[in-house]
């Protein structure tokens, strides 16, 4: 008797779970409208400019941005630097600059100087040195390549 009841219960649950799962999948497949580049920039500027933002949230926003297939705009970079200053984390600011430089990819020769030109006033205002000023762009203890000998 118990086995028959358990079998019917399992069959009923399979049907219920199956419809619920398909509904959830259908809801997740629905996409909203695409946002423009300006709206995207404003969203992240607003995120970094929040009053009660802490170090973890700053890192999360920066990690999300660096995980995307884009180079952050100078306004977003400046907003991230100001957030680093508010949480008093200069190491995070320098790593943010380093991550933005790395996101330039094969366009580093053209894109990174443009970004530096745009954010230099903010860097001076906040007292944040660039990666090049600190010497982080060159390895400190690198050995000569065997092909250069």
UniProtKB/TrEMBL annotation:
Record keywords, A-Z: Heme, Iron, Membrane, Metal-binding, Mitochondrion, Mitochondrion inner membrane, Transit peptide
Signal peptide: none
Domain of life: Eukaryota
Gene3D superfamilies: Cytochrome c oxidase, subunit Va/VI
Any Pfam family the entry gives: COX5A
Pathway: Energy metabolism; oxidative phosphorylation
GO MF entries: metal ion binding
Lipid bilayer topology: Peripheral membrane protein
GO terms under biological process: mitochondrial electron transport, cytochrome c to oxygen
GO cellular component, one term: respiratory chain complex IV
Compartment(s) of residence: Mitochondrion inner membrane
Biological function: Component of the cytochrome c oxidase, the last enzyme in the mitochondrial electron transport chain which drives oxidative phosphorylation. The respiratory chain contains 3 multisubunit complexes succinate dehydrogenase (complex II, CII), ubiquinol-cytochrome c oxidoreductase (cytochrome b-c1 complex, complex III, CIII) and cytochrome c oxidase (complex IV, CIV), that cooperate to transfer electrons derived from NADH and succinate to molecular oxygen, creating an electrochemical gradient over the inner membrane that drives transmembrane transport and the ATP synthase.
Quaternary state and interactors: Component of the cytochrome c oxidase (complex IV, CIV), a multisubunit enzyme composed of a catalytic core of 3 subunits and several supernumerary subunits. The complex exists as a monomer or a dimer and forms supercomplexes (SCs) in the inner mitochondrial membrane with ubiquinol-cytochrome c oxidoreductase (cytochrome b-c1 complex, complex III, CIII).
Record family assignment: Belongs to the cytochrome c oxidase subunit 5A family.
Protein name stated in the entry: Cytochrome c oxidase subunit 5A, mitochondrial
Organism listed in the record: Drosophila albomicans (Fruit fly)
Gene: LOC117575815
